[in-house]
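--- STAGE predict ---
source: upstream dedup step, 1 unique chain passed
mode: sequence only
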Amino acid sequence: MGKSRARRVRRAGPGPAERRDGQRGPEGDPAEGQEPAAELLDKLQHPSAEVREYACASISKLLQQKHVIPAFLQRDVVRCLGPLLMDHSLAVRETAAGALRNLSACGGFEVCDDMVTDDIMTPLVALLKECSTGLDANQLSPKKSREMSKNYIEDIANEAINLLWNICECSNTAVYIFNKEGCLEAVLHYMKKFSTNVDLAISVANCLQAVTEDNPDLLSSFNASAQQVLETVMMCPESTMKHILLRTLIAGTIWNIKDTIPPGSLGSMVNAILKIFSESLAIDAGETIIRMNEAEKNRLELAAEAETEENMSDVVDNCVLSEDDNMEEIPKGKLRRENDVSDLLPSDKWELKEVTALLTAQQTALEIIVNMCCSEDPSDDEWEELSSSDESDLFMENSYDEGSGLLMTPLCLSDEVHSAFLNNLIPKKILEKTAFPNSVALDICMHNRSWKPLIKKLNAVQCRALTCLHSILLVSDVDSLGGASALQSLAQHLSQLVFSKTELPTDTEFLEAITSALRALLQTMASKNISQCMTPEQLLALCEAGIHSSNTSVRVNVVSILGISGSVLAKGQDTAETLKMIGKFLLEVAMKESSLVVAGEALDALFDVFADGEEAKKAAVQIKLLPTLKEFQPVFRMRMRKEGKGHYSTDQLCVLDNVKMNLRRFIAYQETLGKTP
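--- STAGE serialize ---
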């Protein structure tokens, strides 16, 4: 109903902590939950640190299964685990933080709110501040020197930061406490470890991006020193995928706090942010998967060969030992306990972790660009530094992708920001990400259990790119988009995404993203009378598939697409038959759709399609549009009275009121047409 708007996207919080073998627990194996929650919670009070650590680790594993979470919540698991964040044993602190992290990740928004209500923030803030102080400890007491190593403290901090990230993503109260307790200083202190502990830095960057989003009360804490920490990390030269992810997250944080940056420096800051996004998006994820998978195979083969040689060497050594009566035999159990801890450490999956970091960086970059599109237009003086003397030359050189004619234009936030986007070729790279993932890479992931989760990430990047494209289309004019030919090329590209396979797509996330992009594109093309490339048959096929989606946004989009295309066809010749099919489809949706929002969109589309034109007039008579709408009008009014309040937002009700009023006017207009000779 009306032009669609760009919507901000929120990033998902962190996942649950991994087990020490690097794998997550099963989703719902009943046998895993047979040990009573009460028994494990009782063990948290045991005088032995090893028993407490075991209990925390067991609870952590169980909490990854959603069906056992209620049993722990009923027994006050948060108040039982919370004090252990400050346990005398650092091992207990780490496993307790990991258990709470899993609870927050797997429990969802309501559980996170309850955790704040149960005062988890008090011990968590104390732990974060104490670990921050511990990072700088120059001397360790002899008694605890082995346990209190800096790496151990950093591991605890990593779990605690991830817990904080989860809670702050879900709870405004947690964010308020973060501000009030001055947690920013401690969190930024961890960031200074980025050169030696990039994993900790990434966790901190994720947390920072969460707490800085829509948090004006925190802005005053970002003094010059705090900004310097972020800028130092953002400019680090390391080229690993993890460092690309780290820079991307920091760029997002700096965008969130842009109001603290002096106007004279804002232009260079935006250029720096977009350069980082460009660096991330320029990497071919499919080729990276193929290359990294091959590297993993080679590494494992070399490791297997080395292990074989080592085993043979051990056999020889053992023979020598047995012949030498004067040499003391080393107990095998003791040797393994002290020197072989491979079964306690995460599996070495650095290739997989690198690819995962790349895909996360690309998804994050695309989400931030969407939010940049949704920002209010900046004033001209804020973007003064971005102006470029050769802007027009850049536009001419970069408006099209050579050979394909695809759109390569920037966001229409301001003329100066155009230049920044063109300089970094952002739109071209966004378009590249809208394509389906590399088939060879997908095959690798399908046949490798540990790599299989990457398929979901590949698809997420494609969907975010389509959402990005949708936002760009909404904030740009036709000329800045490259003109009619560029838009037609883009329409062909989107059509191929929908119709290139034997069956129409059914994935909800993809359908919402592709239909949103198509809707925005067709709106733009229709507004300038640019001929559309999709045939009526293709449009109807897409709408038939989309209207059965469980996602309301998909249904709204396909109805709107049909209305836009129908209004264009109504201006042509010999289109009455097609208009009849469109009209019947929209009438059926309006009368049978369970959602009033979708039904209202269908009515709006009918008004657009049959507003004018001889072909529309003929089709309206043949499908009995006027009598059908007159009969339906009281039904729609009654539905609004019964279903409106309590089921729909104020904005939605306002739009539906307009539809109701327009329905009355449209019926009157059609009656006038009927009287015209």
